[in-house]
Design goal:
The chain is 58% helix and 2% strand. It is mostly helical.
Amino acid sequence: MTYVHDDQACQEAAEYPLADHHVEKLRGLVTAKRDELGEGGVRAHRVAYNPGSWAGLLPDRLAENDRVSRGDVFDMAETGNLTDVFTASYVWGTGRIGYGPRRYRDIVESTAGRLGLLLSRAAEAASEDVIAGYTMFYGGEDPERRAVANLEPWSRIKGFGPAFFTKFLYFTTQGALILDNVLARKVAALSGMPHLVGDGGRSRAWSPYRYAVYLHWMCQAGTALDCSAEELELTLFTASSALSVVH
């Protein structure tokens, strides 16, 4: 990484190692998840959606299906069509949630025809450093001084927060991982790391620095568990609850 605060983020993550009993429990969960996914691995993880609800919005590859896998979205990313990846990652992220298509339309319309430009700008930054891509979507480095949506030169998009733009980054950028409220709560419970969730388990406004700490923590935890960081991400996300991971 070229991120200027990367060493500090790495050091902070190292202050919150997994406890031995968490390592033992998580190894079993990772193994079970591998067995469930089979040879396809993480790419085989599928999410169901209702194509009828998305009529006229889906890329051709998804229009005739009712499930989308991580592998499907990765394949789209290889074509370089970022708007298709944006749509597919949003469908994958919302699944059968009824308000998904409406919110998707609102997000696209808020960009006033500039969606492709905003995505390509963030993807270009991320190709140099994943935190730079995150910063573009976030609207700067400081959560107290974030740019408003659609303000040059950033790629902050109204309604398209970290829980979803990290999905886009995950599918388009090597080293990126998804960070949403589910993962933030579970990582906070496992590690005791602050600044991920606040009172009542509500997500914080994760700054680019906080995302860098999260990436390092996931990588170091994956090393302790003999798995990849994305295997750990999927295992944590699909575990039944934070308590099922911790106890």
